[in-house]
Automatic annotation (TrEMBL):
Listed name of the protein: NOE3 protein
GO biological process, alphabetically ordered: signal transduction
Coiled coil: 79-106, 170-216
Record keyword Chaperone present: no
Domain Olfactomedin-like: 218-470
GO CC field: extracellular space; synapse
The keyword Iron is annotated on this UniProt entry: no
Cysteine pairs bridged by disulfides in the record: 219-401
Length: 478
């Protein structure tokens, strides 16, 4: 409640107290305890023998409090006790009337103040309502303006984000450039300590030492096969692709022979990149169809099994003609002793660090694998080793350093299961897994120069890396 309203409440409370005092205390002061006060404008009867009449009204038409006492005629002595009481009563009533008059003036003043305040409050209420309406209008207007500003700024957010990203990248670039500058400065200082001729001689010496070290590497034992790396997808389900292990480092020609029979077309590519892109450099039309997929390119010539025979053909790419052919005595052919996948894969020709080999089976060895080392010029058998591993149970095989490694299957789950060393004429069962990614291998050959396995895996030409265990020869070794 506001202060004017509190003041008004205090005034009304005081008036109520005075009215209550008049109705209860005034009769007792004059000894008229029999007084019966009724409501406004009513007569209060006093005992008849006393002759007193008291008129009491709560307020006049103007709202002022009124209290009137009518006394009987003054026929009594002034010294009479009643007269004293009356005089005292009149004095008290006069005092009370004066107080009431003062209170009334205050009440009227406060009432006028309250009316004024009420008018002001009503006016303020109207103003507040108007302000509130205006505020809504202004807020709506301001909100719309802010929204339009935000709409203008929204496209800047990704720009700012890009600035943040660019700033981060620039910081990284600065750091990398700083590091690179430090490295280059170190290299420059290091190079500055030597002249070009001295540096060149150091490189030559290092290369010589490295080559000497490589020459001391003995043939290693296969420890692990990783991959495959898919080079290309082409051809039928069966085929062969290869490079020459005796070619120079600059000669990276690739040869491609699709299918395992009824074909005599060999496609040549100058590099792996040309092979992948299909940029064929030359085509050879062989004089005979080949059997199987187990061909090999060695020292510039192609060695393959002539279709429906146990004859081995040597074909020179440079000369474009057959240089030699020879029957592989007792060797089975035309699906008599193939690998598990068939495809006339009876005779498998391969090469390693030692030379040229033929892997096949004979009736004399009960269908088990025979390993023969061949003369690369005449195709004459130099030496043979008879193993106890059935040829038809082998998935594929390859030679590394004079040791034959045989897989147990050509399908999923294949692993190198068996090996035979021609150096010691001994065998062992192994467990070297490799990932047959495309589920069907029809050609698997080792390339000594690349130290990798070339494979034809269900129409995919892939490479496997091999890990070999080497022994370094010392000067004391004989």
């Amino acid at each position: 409640m506001s202060p004017p309203l509190l003041k008004l409440g205090a005034v009304l409370s005081t008036m109520a107290m005075i009215s209550n005092w008049m109705s209860q205390t005034l009769p007792s002061l004059v000894g008229l305890n029999t007084t019966r006060i009724i409501t406004s404008d009513t007569l209060t009867q006093i005992s008849p023998k006393e002759g007193w009449q008291v008129y009491s009204s709560a307020q006049d038409p103007d709202g002022r409090c009124i209290c009137t006492v009518v006394a009987p005629e003054q026929n009594l002595c002034s010294r009479d006790a009643k007269s004293r009481q009356l005089r005292q009563l009149l004095e008290k009533v006069q005092n009370m009337s004066q107080s009431i008059e003062v209170l009334n003036l205050r009440t009227q003043r406060d009432f006028q103040y309250v009316l004024k305040m009420e008018t002001q409050m009503k006016g303020l209420k109207v103003k507040f309502r108007q302000i509130e309406d205006d505020r809504k209008t202004l807020m709506t207007k301001h909100f719309q303006e802010l929204k339009e500003k935000m709409d203008e700024l929204l496209p800047l957010i990704p720009v700012l984000e890009q600035y943040k990203t660019d700033a981060k990248l620039i910081t990284q670039f600065k750091e990398e450039i700083r590091n690179l500058s430090a490295v280059l400065t170190g290299i420059q200082e290091e190079i500055g300590a030597y002249d070009y001729e001295e540096l060149h001689q150091r490189v030559v010496n290092l290369e010589t030492r490295l080559r000497d070290c490589m020459k001391k590497l003995t043939c290693g034992k296969l420890m692990k096969i990783t991959g495959p790396i898919t080079v290309k997808i082409s051809g039928t389900r069966f085929g062969a692709w290869m490079t020459d292990p005796l070619a120079s480092e600059k000669n990276n020609r690739v040869w491609y022979m699709d299918s395992y029979t009824n074909n005599r077309i060999v496609r040549e590519y100058k590099s792996i990149a040309d092979f992948v892109s299909g940029a064929e450099s030359r085509t050879y039309n062989l004089p005979f169809k080949w059997a199987g997929t187990n061909h090999v390119v060695y020292n510039g010539s192609l060695y393959f099994n002539k279709y429906q025979s146990n004859i081995i053909i040597k074909y020179s790419f440079d000369m474009g003609r057959v240089l030699a052919q020879r029957s592989l005595e007792y060797a089975g052919f035309h699906n008599v002793y193939p690998y598990t996948w068939g495809g006339f894969s009876d005779i498998d020709l391969m090469a390693d660090e030692i030379g040229l080999w033929a892997v096949y089976a004979t009736n004399q060895n009960a269908g088990n694998i025979v390993i023969s080392q061949l003369n690369q010029d005449t195709l004459e058998v130099l030496k043979s080793w008879s193993t106890g591993y059935p040829k038809r149970s082998a998935g594929e095989s390859f030679m590394i350093c004079g040791t034959l490694y045989v897989t147990n299957s050509h399908l999923t789950g294949a692993k190198v299961y068996y090996s035979y060393s021609t150096k010691t004429s001994t065998y062992e069962y192994t467990d070297i897994p490799f990932h047959n990614q495309y589920f069907h291998i029809s050609m698997l050959d080792y390339n000594a120069r690349d130290r990798a396995l070339y494979a034809w895996n269900n129409g995919h030409q892939v490479l496997f890396n091999v890990t070999l265990f080497h022994i370094i020869k010392t000067e004391d070794d004989t």
